[in-house]
Amino acid sequence: MRKFIAVYVDLENVAGIVDLDSMLQDIILEENQEAPEEYIFAVKFACGNSQSISKLRGQLTNHNFEIREAPHVTGKKNRADLIISLDAFEKLYLDKPAIDRFVFVTRDSDFSVIMDILRKYGKEVWLITKEGDEQRPIFTNSTDNIIVLSPKKKSAPPKKKPVSQSTSDKQEGNHGKKSRKTPDEETRDTVAEELFIKVLISLDPSEEHLLNAIANKMRQLNKSFKIKNTSYKRMTTLAKEFEKKGWFKTKKNADGHLLLSDLEASR
């Protein structure tokens, strides 16, 4: 199942505090659906003056954002909010592509007008904003979900991070010798572990989570990721390595699928 997402970045208000790489990952990780979904960022639109654009031009270009310059007209006020709101309304009216979720990255309460309109017509509306703004009633009353921008990327406690060597230690040849990983294998294993950790720390530790759903989120975060290209070969092997280190407990559900529970250790 595909979910089409439109992301609008108000550069005037967030250019100095947002990391696009982390932000787009947070949108995927925030999703609480267990059923595998493919998230399509169908609209990626950023608007601001030339100075704010320059702060994020590299990341905007790497993620194929449409960049629209909105120079100041009077004093410090520009028309970024109007330009973004009209584009979002146009997408709603044309319904091509049919957007399921509109995400606004801003601190400007003027966007509450278009957010209310979108929700009125059955669209899901998310807000990504700076810490402190998430409790403002004008935002909480016009959105379905709010994500707080964090300047620091999420990382796991060093003492909990699995060591790839533990897997290779088990890989013995016919003569009882341990096989050694190539640099490429080490890199792929590290990528797998870091993706797994990133998803784990985003999950509700009090709930049970399907390993298949976690694997889907890992692939969404990194489209080139394939567990078969790592030394683990299977997601169950990767999960068992983490379980041994106390990250969580595993069990099988009625359908035989692996469930992860007791994720407090991953905090």
Total strands: the figure is 9
Strand content: 15-25%
Give the domain tally.
2
Main beta sheet strand tally, sense and closure: 6 strands, parallel
The level of helicity is 25-40%
Sequence of strands across the biggest β-sheet: 3-2-1-4-5-6
Biased composition (Basic and acidic residues): 169-188
Protein name: NYN domain-containing protein
GO molecular function, one term: RNA nuclease activity
Region (Disordered): 149-188
Structural descriptors:
267 residues; alpha/beta; Rossmann fold; Arc Repressor Mutant, subunit A; three-stranded antiparallel beta sheet; 37% helix
Description:
The chain is an alpha/beta fold. It folds into two domains: 2-148, Rossmann fold (3-Layer(aba) Sandwich); 158-266, Arc Repressor Mutant, subunit A (Orthogonal Bundle). 37% of the residues lie in helices and 18% in strands. It contains ten helices and nine strands. The chain has helices at residues 11-14, 20-29, 50-62, 80-94, 112-120, 137-140, 165-168, 183-200, 211-221, 235-244; strands at residues 2-10, 38-48, 66-69, 101-105, 124-129, 145-148, 209-210, 249-252, 258-261. It has a six-stranded parallel sheet with strand order 3-2-1-4-5-6, with helices on both faces. The protein has a three-stranded antiparallel sheet with strand order 7-9-8. Helix 8 crosses helix 9. It starts with a strand and ends in a 6-residue tail after the last strand. The model is unreliable at 152-178 (pLDDT under 50).
